[in-house]
Amino acid sequence: MKKAPAARPDEAELFYKAMGGVARLHDHGRVVHRPRPPAPVPQQRLRDNDEVLRESLSDHVPYELALESGEELAYVRAGLPRQVLRQLRRGRWVIQDQLDLHGLNVAEARTALGEFLARCRRSGTRCVRVIHGKGLRSRNREPILKQKVAGWLAQREEVLAFCQARTVEGGGGAAVVLLRAPKAPA
After folding, report:
1. Distance, CA of 153 to CA of 159 (rounded, Å)
2. What total of structural domains would you count in the chain?
3. 168 lies in some domain
4. CATH number reported for the structural domain that contains residue 128 in this entry
């Protein structure tokens, strides 16, 4: 390590003359820290989360539902044979539970349906009926919940298929839903 060359007497004298009128600042015990940079914000993750939330709250009717003709609801998850839908219409599976949405508004119905499907998933229930009503008491006598329920069901991963209930099970005012089988314990 090199030593700094010693200051010559004439340089020190010049320094003190230059500093003659300068007063020392008082130390008040303050410490000044440099500001820390902000924590990084995962922008892409936030955008992805927002998109997932938007999709989950969407009332968009899936393409497969839009293709069905008439008033009857019918849906089968992509990759499953249409035979599953035929068997569901014919009552192959026994209805194990049901949810009645009569008297609920759209927001209440959506929440009730989500909670009902979560409960069915936990209990291992495979086939359920969702009673959405025919819309006879709604404005313009249109079945508002019928299309909403169809869209919500099609968005749920545990729903394999659904169709309009048979006449003895509620007809156009209800849907029979086939749920995914619970995974076997490993």
Report:
1. 6
2. 1
3. yes
4. 3.30.1370.110
